[in-house]
Each structure stands twice: as C-alpha cells, then as structure tokens.
Design goal:
heterodimer, A: 503 residues, Trefoil (Acidic Fibroblast Growth Factor, subunit A), 2 domains, five-stranded mixed β-sheet, four-stranded antiparallel β-sheet, 1 helix, disordered N terminus, disordered C terminus, B: 239 residues, mainly beta, Tachylectin-2, Chain A, 49% strand, globular
Chain lengths: 503, 239
C-alpha cells in the first residue's frame, strides 16, 4: 500500500494488558482483518458495492479487504468496508448460528454493532452485540471466497482475527488556523473575497477569514436575538445556520429549539452584506411542536435546476424532510404545502444535519448519522444518497433508499477528528468542499471547523480527497483518495460561476 | 356534487371511503379524471349516512400535473394510538399517507408530512391502498397493474406490513414496498379476473377480503368478490 504503515493491533495495546480486554482501536487507520486459520482477509464477495453482498474471506489483492473500525459507544464498533462504504452485519439481523455475514447500509440495526476483544497473541475476536455470537469462516474453510458466518464462541482459529493497520483511514482535513471553534458550520465567500463562517450558539456566531485558512472571531449575525424565537429557545441560543447568496442578498436560515425536544422553529434572516450584526430577521418559516412527528431544525436551502427553492430540515423524530419555498419571500410556498420525507432510519432515529447539493444532474442528500455533542465520545458520521429529483426518492450507492436507512458513509471518526457531522457542501473556486465540525481529541473534544476537499468518482459519488497524498489511503472505493485530475479543467468554469454568483 | 369538484371532474366522483367516528359518518371521496393526476380528495359528513344526507366539508388534499402523486383512492385509518391517517394514491409516485386532525377530518396542522408508503420503480401501476391493523402490525394492501379492462385486466392484490403506520412496509421476502415489494395474496384464477380495489372487513369472527373482479363468464363485468382471510404462523395473510 504505497509504503503505508503496516502494524498489527498489538502495537496499540498497552504493554501487559490483560487477555480478553476490549481493544482500543486507532481510528487513524484502515485495517485488514485477517483470519488466523486461513490467513485470508475479510472482504466482500466479488468486491461488490451492492447492499446485501456476502462478506467472505478474500483473495489477496481484492480491493474490498479494508475496513474502518467506527467507535459506536460503550466500547462497541461499526465495521465499515472502505470500498463499499457499507457496514459488516448479519443477514436479516439474525441471532441464529451459521447465519452468513453481509454488508448493509447503516440503518441502525443492532447486528451492525461489534465488540472487539483481545485474546492475546496478536489476535482478536469479533462478537456480534445482537447475537452474542462471534464472526468466523463457515466450515473453518481455508478457501478463498468462503463465507463469513456468526457462530458460537468456541475459540477455534477460524474465529480469531488479526487487525493489520494498512494505510490512513481518510485524508486529513485541509489546514485551518485561528478561531476555528464552530458547531454546525456554514460558510460563504463575499464579493471582496472575505469568507464568513456561521455557527451554532447565541445570535449565530461568526468568524471571518481572508483566505479560508486563518479565521478570526467576528461577533454574531444578529445585533439582537429575534423576540419570537424565545418561545422556542428560552435560552436565547440559535442553532445550525445555513448561509447562501441568491438574488442580490444573503439568506440565513437558522433554528430555535432546545436540546432533546421538538418544540422548534426555523427562521429566516437576510442581509445585503453578510457582515456581523447586519442580518434583518424575516420571521418564522416552519415550526414543530410536541404533536409533530418531525423537528423543525437544521435547515438547508437548495435551489433546484429549474430555479425552484426548497428547504431541507429535520432531526431525529421522523427524520429528514423537505418543503418548497417561495423565492420571493424565502417562506413556504403557498401553492405547495406538501412536506416530503427524504430520509429516515427505521431502526434508529439518529439522523440530522441534512444538506442537499446539486452536482451533475443529481441531488445529493448529506446527513449526519448517530450522536453529536458528546465531545470525543461523539459518534457522528456523514452519509450521502442521491436522486434525480429534489423531492426524492434518494438512494445510497449500495441501492438502499434513504427512507429505509440508506446512506453511503463518506466520513467518520479518524484520529483526532472525532464525530464529523453538521455538514454542508460549498462550491469554492478551487472545487467542492465538505464543511463540517469535528470534536477535536487534541482539544478535549471541542467542536472545530473541518474542511475536506470533495472529489467525485467515476460513478458520480463524492469522497473526501486531497491533492497530494502524503500517505496511502485504501479508499479503493474511489480508485484513490486523490482529487480527480480532471477537476482543474472543470474548475475554470466553476470559477466563472463563483465569480458571477458573488459579483 | 360539491362545486369545487368541477375543477377536477365533471360530475363523476370516485372511490368512496365511509367510516363512522365520534358519532357521525365520514365519507372521503375523489374527484379526478381517468389517466390524469389533476385530482382532489374531498370529505363529506352525515349524521345518518342516508342518501342525500351528506354535507360537503371541502377539499382535504389535491394534486396537480407538477406533483408526483395522485390525490384519489382515499382510505381513513385510526391507529392504535388514536391518531387519524388518510392513505391515498394511484400511479405517479404511488401510495401516500397524511395525518388527519380528528376535529375536522382535514390534514393535521401539526403534521404537514406526506409519507410515501409504496411505489413500484419499474411500473407506476399501484393503487387502491387499504391499511388494516392486525396483531400489533399494520398491513398495507394495494392493487398492482391494470384495472378496468374487463377480461384483459391484470389487477392483483399485494400486501406488506410495518410496525408503524407511517412505514416502512416490507413484504414477506423483506423487500420494501417503497422499492417495489409486495407479497401477492390474490390474482387472476379461472374466470375470476383481475381482482383488486380491495378492503379488509372485520365481521364478527371473520376477517374478509372484499374486492371486485372482472367476471370471465360475464363479458368481464366487475363483480363483488369476498374471501375469508387467514393468517399463517409468521403473521402473513392468505385466503
């Protein structure tokens, strides 16, 4: 792997750690999961990216033989294939012995949770939280292609695995400096080249930057918090802003709510300049109350290819929803009161922070799965699906509808960058950017600005990339983690678009 | 005929759904035109259900050419928690569900969501939804393929189920109804052609599947069909 570091999991274990201790995984790395009995690595049958494909022990050289170990809380992990971006699970979440393992979307079922236990000698066992059974190879086979199954824990070599670190889990985010503390970021570049970063708290916190690298705190969007929001946020704490520029002004959608409840509202403010304190409140767009099955927070504006305006929003409860807006007011369209269900995880309500982005005739729905706001214990990660229509249905790359828990995972915890989420997409003059927060393990889990360049693979799916790879990344998913070379030519026209947009 | 309905149809109302709640009768009905989705579902109420006794309450939900759904084939359901729901839909984007305010029979102000329950990505032909609660689950019955062609009709009845009325519904093979799933419970056999347009009716100790079929012995005329439903050990209905 390009001279990438190859280490075994034993490297990460404290010297003299007791046998049967739970393993603390270094999430900086992708791993090969090698069977002790066969020496073959856990892989996807035929290197398939389709949901439901069997998990097998693979031939050497298979591109699907790399996995990320995603902390899922309580010492449990979700095990993500780096090629398919789907999770290791058990067919139909069965608890019966001999049931084959499959890959599936992160729909929240318990068969995706695993405990990794050190059994000494450089080996671990992988126990299904759902069934209590351990992962092995059926019939103790040593043949490539043999199916992985769950079985009773009887200590056979076929149920023991070696975790070999094999390259970086993700390219690191691009470097940012200064006042980069932020939660639920959204960013815009103004006509004079100044970047304004907006984030959760108070009257919407702001930072500015001349170069998208150096950031300085710059006050708040509102000179004073709109009175009407206090009914929804008694703490006078506004959340999850979404900034954009259309029709000669800046549009700032924001949320007023309280943590854990759905008495919530989305408001709109506008400004001619986007400078701190310049935003004029336009009032409420949509609200929810305890009788509502949805939660009116986390707004994101999307203008479709026909010029229609839409607002995506939602958090927990029934998931991610969409309404149509009237471009003349930024409020809900009088001619279309339908609320469209875009995404939902039937087995786990933890989906929020959505954003819809138009790219090459597809609408891409990005969402944050699992738990925010718990410092380095946060389990947020970013998943995506797409649709030819802004109202859906959205499917992930494996073929699962996002209303059924589908979502291709493109970014999760790695090293100090814990729990990435609360994301938006931004098109800047050097290409597409994923803008998010992560909980910084090097700063006691404080939420910080993450910016990752986004490449688009041959199938039109986004992935975090970097221009020059300092280290190998087995993101074979996408051929490589390098940004596609063709993007330079594309950028020229993109530049023109950006210039005209901010003129 | 209510005056508003003339915007959607000229004198022919469809697919009525009658139920009784809170001491009065509710009649949901559709105004549409065959093959189009310029449609509306209306509500009328009556104290007696007698002919001519119904007073129109106006439009519940409408659809237009730019919409991905068709506001016909209404069906009211009261769930186990006492919430009211209206299923509807035909062709276009499939079967939809909205929450109803029990005080007025219209869409609930606190829930403007339209839930997509079932669609067939490879064929738009799904309609006539009916949701039936059984043993802590909701069973969604729909008619697949083509009605209304006499002996050439290809209607058949499929079912899926969910623990929540808003879905997701899955068929017996685990395929989501939102992705074309549906376990077939009744299709053409002998002179019983194209069964569909079904409801499930609980009558005493019997649960009955009530539908129409096109009679192969009578020039394909639509006739009333009725079969008892039994539930297998895994909780799937069969006749």
């Amino acid at each position: 792997m390009n001279g990438s570091p190859i280490r075994t999991i034993a490297t990460f274990l404290a010297a003299g750690s007791l046998a049967l201790a739970q393993v603390a995984v270094d999430t900086d790395f992708a791993y090969r999961i090698v069977n002790k009995n066969s020496g073959l690595a856990l892989s996807i049958d035929g290197d398939s990216t389709t949901a439901g494909a069997p998990v097998v022990q693979g031939e050497d050289g298979g591109t699907s033989g790399y996995w990320l170990l995603m902390p899922a809380g309580e010492g449990q992990y979700k095990i993500l294939n780096t090629l398919s971006r789907e999770l290791l699970g058990i067919t139909n979440a069965s608890t019966a012995p001999a049931t084959p393992a499959v890959q599936w979307a992160d729909n929240g079922t318990a068969d995706h949770l695993w405990q990794i236990t050190d059994v000494g000698g450089g080996y671990v066992k992988l126990s299904s939280v759902n069934s209590g059974l351990v992962l092995g190879i059926g019939g103790s086979s040593q043949t490539p292609g043999a199916a992985a199954v769950q079985s009773a824990d009887d200590g056979d070599a076929t149920e023991l695995w070696q975790l070999d670190a094999a390259g970086a889990a993700y390219p690191p985010p691009v470097r940012v400096l200064g006042d980069t503390g932020v939660h639920d970021p959204s960013m815009v570049r103004t006509g004079d080249g100044t970047y304004y970063l907006f984030g959760t708290h108070d009257g919407i916190l702001m930072s500015s930057s001349p170069d998208r690298v150096h950031f300085t705190s710059a006050g708040q969007a509102f000179a004073s918090i709109p009175d009407w929001t206090v009914a929804y946020s008694p703490a006078r704490d506004l959340w999850a802003p979404d900034i954009s520029w259309h029709d000669g002004q800046y549009w700032l959608y924001y949320a007023a709510s309280g943590f854990g409840g759905n008495v919530s509202a989305i408001g709109l403010a506008t400004s001619a300049t986007a400078t701190p304190g310049s935003f004029i409140d336009e009032g409420m767009v949509i609200a929810s109350d305890t009788a509502s099955p949805y939660n009116a927070i986390d707004p994101g504006l999307i203008v479709d290819s026909s010029g229609n305006w839409w607002l995506v929003f939602g958090s927990w409860w029934d998931g991610i929803n969409l309404i149509q807006l009237d471009p003349s007011t930024g409020k809900q369209a009088s001619w279309n009161r339908t609320m469209y269900l875009l995404a939902q995880r039937p087995a786990d309500p933890a989906i929020e922070g959505s954003y819809v982005y138009l790219h090459d005739n597809y609408y891409y729905l990005f969402a944050s799965f699992d738990q925010c706001c718990d410092g380095i214990n946060s389990t947020y990660h970013i998943a995506v699906g797409r649709s030819g229509s802004v109202t859906g249905p959205y499917y992930d790359r494996g073929g699962i509808a996002m209303t059924l828990g589908g979502g291709t995972i493109i970014l999760s915890s790695h090293g100090q960058f814990v729990g990435p989420g609360g994301q938006v997409m931004m098109h800047d003059n050097d290409g597409d950017l994923l803008i998010y927060h992560y909980y910084d393990a090097d700063s006691n889990g404080a939420p910080m600005l993450g910016i990752s360049r986004v490449g688009w693979d041959a199938g039109g799916w986004p992935y975090p990339c970097e221009y020059s790879l300092g280290r190998g990344w087995p993101g074979i998913t996408h051929g490589s983690a390098a940004c596609a070379p063709s993007r330079e030519s594309r950028n020229r026209s993109a530049d023109d678009r950006v210039r005209s947009q901010y003129r | 005929m209510p005056p508003w309905a003339s915007a959607y149809n000229h004198g022919d109302l469809w697919a009525p759904d009658v139920s009784t709640h809170n001491g009065k009768y509710l009649l949901y009905f559709a105004a549409s035109t065959f093959g189009k989705n310029t449609s509306a579902i209306g509500l009328a109420t009556s104290q007696t259900a007698a002919p001519g006794s119904w007073s129109d309450q106006g439009i519940v939900i409408s659809s237009h050419a730019s919409d991905d759904y068709n506001a016909i084939d209404p069906g009211l359901l009261v769930d186990s928690g006492g919430k009211w729901w209206l299923s509807f839909g035909s062709f276009w984007g499939g079967i939809m569900l909205i929450e109803i305010d029990p005080t007025n029979g219209k869409q609930a102000s606190w829930n403007q969501m339209r839930y997509p329950l079932a669609r067939r990505p490879e064929s738009p032909a799904i309609e006539a939804a009916y949701i039936y609660p059984h043993d802590n689950r909701y069973y969604l019955f729909t008619s697949f393929d083509q009605c209304c062609r006499g002996v050439a009709s290809t209607y058949h009845i499929a079912v899926g189920r969910s623990t929540r009325v808003t879905g997701p519904y899955y068929d017996r093979d685990g395929v989501a109804l939102s992705q074309g799933g549906g376990t077939i419970v009744l299709s053409s056999h002998g002179t019983v052609i194209g069964p569909g347009g079904q409801v499930v009716f609980h009558d005493g100790n019997d649960e009955l599947l009530i539908y129409h079929y096109y009679d192969g012995t009578n020039k394909g005329r639509p006739m009333l069909g009725m079969n008892r439903i039994r539930w297998d050990s895994e909780g799937w209905p069969h006749i």
